[in-house]
Amino acid sequence: MLCKNFIFKSDDGTDIFVYNWTPDNDVKVKGIVQIAHGMAETAARYERFAETLTGSGYIVYANDHRGHGRTAGSVEKLGYLADNNGFDWLVKDLHQLSVITKKENPSLPLFLLGHSMGSFAAQRYIMLYGDELNGAVLSGSNGKQGMILNLGLLLAKNEIKKHGRKAQSHKLSRMTFGSYNNAFKPNRTEFDWLSRDNHEVDKYIKDQFCGTVFTAGFFYDFLTGLKEIEDKKNLSLIPKKLPIYIFSGEKDPVGKFGKGVIRLLNTYKSYGIKDITYKLYKDGRHEMLNETNRYEVMKDIIHWLNLHNHNA
């Protein structure tokens, strides 16, 4: 696997840092996978997955979202996306990178894979730009969340009023993630919900760019984005022919232990999405790509990609 990094300038002037992994010269290239990583992590954590993808002939692009990793640039700048509409800007950044990937590889099919927060960004992306993709993969996602979003937005507004958009919001962080570890007591760490693999959890905890408490402005923009992807008019924009694959751990609290995943699946089916499949992994937690059975998960993803790739 070959690796290079580059930076592109977003339409609002933000420098977005990108990892680009490519197959070795003796591997036939057959497609592109663009990865949208989750909240409070970085694209660098997907290098192992990229190695598997490139070994199977896929070029991989993954940017550090604004407010994350090397795009944020320093620990002090983590957790703040933009002065307004941060989630919208994050989705625009993803599309801008897609345009770059297609310009560099005009004949190759493009697949978007989003994990957790990145999966919600991908849900919005396919509403706006779905006809430019050959398929979408959603990891660690969830369906309609309803009234809880209104409560969160109200709290976020109050936090912004009291402390400003750039202030870390421990209150909203507790509301969002506070109960996630409850199913895994007795807890070894506060991030047991991520994976059964203790080594992977410890790597996350030791990474200074992971696990940060995010800002009130982030939560307001993110919750606003979640409301957008539940909107019926927006759901009707998803191309009916777009292939979608959803996978999650059966014990992932983000997906309500499978219930939210099924809810999302049924929502998409009700809007006429024809080619949609899902898989729930027994005993799996939130980060299936860092789980004890991660190579099974990667093999399943590549199998789905190849099924939907005319070059495979």
Task: Give an account of the 3D structure.
The chain starts with a strand and ends in a 5-residue tail after the last helix. It is an alpha/beta fold and 312 residues long. It has a single domain (2-144, 229-307), classed as 3-Layer(aba) Sandwich (Rossmann fold), CATH 3.40.50.1820. It has an eight-stranded mixed β-sheet with strand order 1-2-4-3-5-6-7-8, with helices on both faces. It is 40% helix and 16% strand. The mean pLDDT is 97. The chain is globular. The chain has eleven helices and eight strands. The longest helix is centred in the first third of the chain and has 19 residues, at 86-104. Helix 4 packs across helix 8 (216-230) and helix 5 (147-163) packs antiparallel against helix 8 (216-230).
